[in-house]
Amino acid sequence: MGKGGQDYGKSENIGSKSVKDGDSFAPWARDVKECEEKYGVSRDLGLSSDEVERRRKIHGWNELEKHEGPSIWRLILDQFNDTLVRILLCAAVVSFVLAWYDGSEHGETGITAFVEPLVIFLILIVNAFVGVWQENNAEKALEALKEIQSETASVIRDGKKIPNLPAKELVPGDIVELRVGDKVPADMRVLALISSTLRVEQGSLTGESEAVSKTVKSVLEDSDIQGKKCMVFAGTTVVNGNCICLVTHIGMNTELGKVHSQIQEASESEDDTPLKKKLNEFGEVLTAIIGVICALVWIINVKYFLTWEYVDGWPKNFKFSFEKCTYYFEIAVALAVAAIPEGLPAVITTCLALGTRKMAQKNALVRKLPSVETLGCTTVICSDKTGTLTTNQMAVAKLVAMGPRAATIRTFNVDGTTYDPADGGIENWPAGSMDVNLQMIAKIAAICNDAGVEKSGHHYVASGMPTEAALKVMVEKMGLPNGLQHVSSSSDDVLRCCQAWANSEIRIATLEFDRDRKSMGVIVSSSSGKKSLLVKGAVENLLERSSFVQLLDGSVVELDQSTRCTILESLQEMSTGALRCLGFAYKEDLPEFATYDGDEEHPAHQLLLNPSNYSSIESKLIFVGLAGLRDPPRKEVPKAIVDCRAAGIRVMVITGDNKNTAEAICREIGVFGLDEDISSRSLTGKEFMDHSDKKGHLRKTGGLLFSRAEPRHKQEIVRLLKEDGEVVAMTGDGVNDAPALKLADIGIAMGIAGTEVAKEASDMVLADDNFSTIVAAVSEGRAIYNNMKAFIRYMISSNIGEVASIFLTAALGIPEGLIPVQLLWVNLVTDGPPATALGFNPPDKDIMKKPPRKSDDSLINAWILFRYLVIGLYVGLATVGIFIIWYTHGSFFGIDLSQDGHSLVSYSQLANWGQCRSWEGFSASPFTAGSRVFRFDEDPCDYFETGKVKAMTLSLSVLVAIEMFNSLNALSEDGSLLTMPPWVNPWLLLAMSVSFGLHFLILYVPFLAQVFGIVPLSLSEWLLVLLVAFPVILIDEVLKFIGRCTSGLQKPARIAKAKGE
Question: N or C: which end of the chain has fewer CB within 10 A?
Answer without folding.
Answer: C
